[in-house]
Amino acid sequence: MIEVKNISKSYQTTNILNNLSLIIPQQRLTTIIGPNGAGKSTLIGMISRIIPPTSGDVLINGVSIFKQKSNELAKKLSILKQDNHILLKLTVEELVSFGRYPHSFGKLTPIDHVKIKEAITYMDLESLQHQLIHTLSGGERQRAYIAMILAQDTDYIILDEPLNSVDIKHAKELMTRIRRLVDELGKTVVVVLHDINFASSYSDYIIALKRGDVVFSGTPDDLMHQHILTQIYDIPFTIAKNNNKKIGIYY
Amino acid sequence: MKKTYILFLILFILSITSLFIGVKQFELVDILTLSEEVLMFLTMSRIPRLLALIFTGIGLSLSGLIMQTISRNKFVSPSTAATIDSARFGILIGLIFFASSAFYVKTILAFLFAFLGTLLFMKLISMLKAKNMLLIPLLGIVLGTLIDALTSLIAYRFDVIQLLNSSLVGDFSLIVQGRYELLYIMIPVVIILYLYSYQFSIAGLGEDVSKNLGLHYNQVVIIGIALVAIISATTIITVGNIPFLGLIVPNIVMMIHGNHLKKNMVPTSLFGAILVISTDIVGRVIIFPYEIPIGLSLGVVGSLIFLYLLLRRPKYVKQT
Amino acid sequence: MSNKLKWSLILIVIVLALLYVFLEMNRNAFSYMFPRRLIRLFAIILVAFVVATSTASFQALTNHHILTPSMLGYDSIYLLMQTVLIFVLGSTHPLSSSSSLLFFVTLIIMVGLSTILFVPLLRYLRHDLFTFLLIGIVLATLFRSVTSFLQMIIDPNEFSIIQDRSFASFNNMNVSLIYIAYAIVIVTTIVFQHRIKELDCIALGKSQAINLGIDYNKATTEMIVMIGILISVSTALVGPIMFLGLLVVNIARSILATYKHSALILISFLIGAGIILIGQTLLERYFNNMIPLGVVINAFGGLYLLYLLVKEFKRI
Question: What is the domain extent for residue B74?
C-alpha cells in the first residue's frame, strides 16, 4: 500500500502542494485528475522519489521511501514520465531490457530474458522488437515504454499522462491494457490523466487535485456528478449515460 | 517614460565626468575660458573617447536585443552566436593577407565574416527541432569555439597570434581623434534598426506567423544579421572585444521592462551606454594613472552579472 | 559491436604504435630515442583513454552529443594558471619551468578549483546540467578575459612560452610524471567504475535513471568529480586538448550503432589513440614539430565537427 502523509512542496515562494495525505488502494487502478498546475505531476514525482518533498513522507508497505535505497525501491515501484526524448539508438528489445537493470545491473540472466520476452509479448510488440524506437509511432512507442516498466516487474506502477499525443484508438487500447495490468497481473497502478471520461470509465478509484489540494477522492460513480466536476474544472459539465457508464460532457 | 528621463540624466552626468578623467587635469574654469590647450585635449582625446564609449554601448546592446528578439532566445548575443569569433577570423585574414592595405579593408573583412558566421549560426538554429532555451547559446559558443580553433591554427602558422590577441582585448585608451571615426557608421545603422524594429518584432513571433502577416521573414532576418555584423565588426576593429555586453544589457532591461522590442530600444541603448561609461570611469580611476582596459573590466563585470542571472533567477531563465 | 570491428581497430592501433616508436629510428641513437618514444607512447595512450572516458561520460550526463567537458572551463583555468605563473614569476622561476613542479601545482589547482567550484554549484542548481554547463562557459570566458589581458602586457618572449603551452604537445615528457599520471588515472577509474557502468541508464534521462534505481544526484556529482580529475591529469601532463574528445566520440557514434557506453568508450579510445599516433608520427618525423598537435587537432577536428553539427541539427 502506498501512503502519502502530509506531503507539501514549495519552490521559493510558490506552494505547489499543501499538506496532502492520501492512500493509494492496493491492486486497483487509481487515476489522478485535475486542471493544469494542480500539482499532479509533482505529486507522483514525489511518490516515486524523483522529486524530494519540502515536508512530509511517503510510505510504501509501511516503510518510508526516503529511507530505502533507490535500487531496492526500483524493484517495488516503477514510474514512467513523459519526458522521454531519448537520443540513443535503441531497439524495442533493448529498451525493454533496461527494465531489468534494478535486478541484474546490465548482466542479463535467463530469468531476465524470460521476463523481457513476457513483457514484449504482453504488449504485442513481437513484430516490432528489433525496430529502433524513434521509428515507431506514438502509440507503439508508449507500448514499448510500458513493456519496459512491465519487465521491471514491480508491484506498483505509476504512469504520468501516458495518453498524451496518442490517438483515440491507441489511447483506448492503452487504457484497456492498463486495466489488464490490474485485473490479470494484480498490479497496483496509478495513472495521471487529463481525459475525465477515460478516468471514469476505467478506474477503480479517482483522486482529484486542484491548486495543490485534494478536492475529491472516491469511486467514479461518486465523482461523476455535475456539481463536483464543475467545481474541479471550473467549467460547466453535464452528465450523460452510455452503457452503464457515466460520461461527462463539457463541449 | 520617467525612467527614460532618469537614464538620460545619468548618462549626461557620467559623460561629463568621463571628460574630466585622465592624466591631464583641468578645471571647469578652463573649459569656460576655452583655453586652446584644453580644447585640443577635449577634441583629440576625451570627446572621441566618450563618443566611442557611447556608440559602443548603444551598438552592442542593441545588437544583442535584436538578436534575442529574432531568435526568440534571451541568451543569444554577438558573443554567443559566433559573431565575434567570425569577425576575429576576418581580422586575421586581414592581418595576414592585407597587412599593408587600407584600414577599411580589415573592416570589410571583419564584417563579411561576422555576417557569414552569424548567418550560419541562425541557419543551424532554425534546423533545431527541440528548442531548449540553454542549448542555443551553448551551440553558438561551440560554433564560436570551432571558428576560434581554426583562427588559432592559421594565426599560429603565420606567427601573428600575440598580435591578433592583443588587438582584440577591448581597450578605449587608444581612442583618439583619427582612430575612431569608423564608429560613426553606427549612427545610420542604429537608425535603421529603430525603423525596422516593428518588423523584427514580428519576425520574432516565428516564420509561420510572419508569413501569415505578409512579412518577408528571411529578408528581415538577413537585414538584422547584417546590421548586427556591421556593429560588431566596427566595434571589434576600433575598440576590441567587449564580451557579454550584448547579452546582459537587454536581459536586465527585459527583467524590468518586459518584452516589447520597440519600447525597449531606448532604455537598452541608454543603459548600455551607461554601463560602458561607468565601467570605463572605474577602470580609469582605480589604478590611476594606469587603466584597466574595458575588455577586462567589462569581461569580469559582464560575466558576474551573467552568472547572477543564471544562479539567482532560475525562473527567469526558464521563461521563454 | 562486432568483434571484427573491435579487433581490427586494436590491430590498427598496435601497428600505428609500432610505427610511431620505430619509424625513422636512428640505430646509433637507439638507446636514447627508444625510451623517450616509449614514454610518449604511454602518454598518448593515457590521453586517449582520458579523453574518451570523460567525453563519453559527460555526454551521457548531459544527454547531448555536441557537448564536451572542457567547456566547463578546465582549459581556461589551465591557461590562466600558466599565464599568471609566468607573469608573476617569470619563465625562469623553477615553478614555471620545472615540469614536475608545474605538473603538481597545475593538477592540484585544477582538481581543487573544479571540485570546490563545481560540486556545490551542481548541488545548488539541483543537478540541472544545462545551466551548469552555461555557467562553466561563462566562468571560462571570465578566466579568458583575465588571461587575454595579462597576455597583452606580457613580454613577447615570455608570451611565446605560454603560447607553446596553450596547445597539447607530447614533447618533453618527464618519466616520473607518466608514472604518477597513470597511477592517478587508474585509481580514479577503479574508484568510480560503478558509476561508469551506470552510464547507460543515466543516458536515458533523469526520471528513467531514477526509476531504474540509480541515485541520480550522487551519480552525477561523482561523475563530474571523476571527469574533473581525469581531465586535469591529462591537461597538466600534455596541455589542453579540447576537441579531441568531441571528435573521437562522435566518430565512434557514427561507426557504432550501440547505446552501450562501454563499447563507445573503447572504440573512442582506439580512434583517439590512432589519431594522435598518426598526428604525432607525422609531426615528429616529417614536419619537425612545426605546430603542436593540439592546434592541428583543434582545427581539423573543428571542421569535421562543423560538418557533424549540421548533420546532427537536422536529426534532433
Answer: 2-318
Contact yes or no for A106 and C64 at CB 8 A: no
| CATH of region A1-74+191-251, choose from 3.40.50.300, 3.30.70.141, 3.40.50.620, 3.40.190.170 | 3.40.50.300
**Inter-chain CB proximity B303 and C141 less than 8 Å:** yes
Inter-chain residue contact B296 with C149, CB threshold 8 Å: yes
Q: CB within 8 A of C250, min separation 6: which ones? A: C65, C305, C308
Strand partners, A249: A238
Contact assignment for A79 to C214 by CB distance below 8 Å: no
Q: pLDDT averaged over chain B?
A: 81
Shortest CB distance from C296 goes to which of B147, B153, B166?
B153
Give me the mean pLDDT over the B135-158 stretch: 80
Q: What are A174-208's pLDDT values in tens digits?
A: 899 999 999 999 999 999 998 888 998 899 999 99
Cell numbers representing residue C310 in the block: 549540421
Contact B300, B236 (CB under 8 A): no
Residue C213 C-alpha, separation from nearest chain A C-alpha, in angstroms: 4
Q: Torsion angle, CA of C280/C281/C285/C288, rounded to 10 degrees? A: -20
Mutate: best of A70, A90, A158, partner C, most C CBs <10 A: A70
pLDDT tens, position by position, C209-226: 999 999 998 898 899 889
Neighbours of chain B (3+ CB pairs under 8 A): C
Mutation choice for A interface testing from C208, C214, C316 by most A CBs within 10 A: C208
Quickly count: other Cβ atoms within 10 Å of residue B109's Cβ.
Answer: 23
Give the 3-state secondary structure of residue A31.
Answer: strand
Alpha helices (runs of H) in chain C, residue ranges in sequence order: 3-22, 30-62, 74-89, 94-97, 99-124, 129-153, 156-165, 175-191, 193-197, 199-202, 206-211, 216-238, 242-255, 261-281, 293-315
Q: Which of C211, C215, C259 is nearest residue A78 as measured by Cβ atoms?
A: C211
Write the single-letter amino acid at C164: D
- In whole angstroms, give the CA distance from residue C238 to residue C135: 26
Q: Could C148 and B296 be called an inter-chain contact, meaning their C-beta atoms sit closer than 8 Å?
A: yes
Q: What is the total count of domains within chain B?
A: 1
C207–A79 C-beta distance less than 8 A: yes
* B201, burial (CB in 10 Å: exposed 0-12, middle 13-18, buried 19+): middle
Query: How far is Cα B142 from Cα B80, in angstroms, rounded to an integer?
Result: 9
Does the distance separating the beta carbons of C134 and B134 come in below 8 Å? yes
Domain residue ranges in chain A? 1-74+191-251
CATH 1.10.3470.10, domain C3-315, yes or no: yes
By C-alpha distance, which of A147, A233, B319, B101 is closest to A248?
Answer: A233
What's the pLDDT at B303? 84
- Rounded distance, CA A207 to CA A191, Å? 10
Which residues of C fall within a CB distance of 8 Å from B130?
316
Q: What is the least distance, in Å, from the CA of C194 to any CA of chain A?
A: 10
Residues of chain C with pLDDT under 70: 1, 94-98, 172-173, 309-310, 312-316
Residue B17: give its domain's CATH number.
Answer: 1.10.3470.10
Check: CB of residue B210 under 8 Å from CB of residue B203.
yes
Q: Rounded to an integer, what distance in angstroms lies between the CA atom of residue C305 and that of residue C59?
A: 15
Cα(B176)–Cα(B50) distance, rounded to whole angstroms? Answer: 10
Q: pTM for the full model?
A: 0.82
Distance of residue C212 Cα from the nearest chain B Cα, in angstroms = 26
Give me the residue from A78, A86, A152 closest to C204, CB to CB.
A86
Q: Which of C128, C142, C309 sits opposite B303 (nearest CB)?
A: C142
| Residue A8 bridge partners (DSSP) | A55
- Which single residue is written with the C-alpha cell 487529463? A194
Residue A155 has pLDDT above 90, yes or no: yes
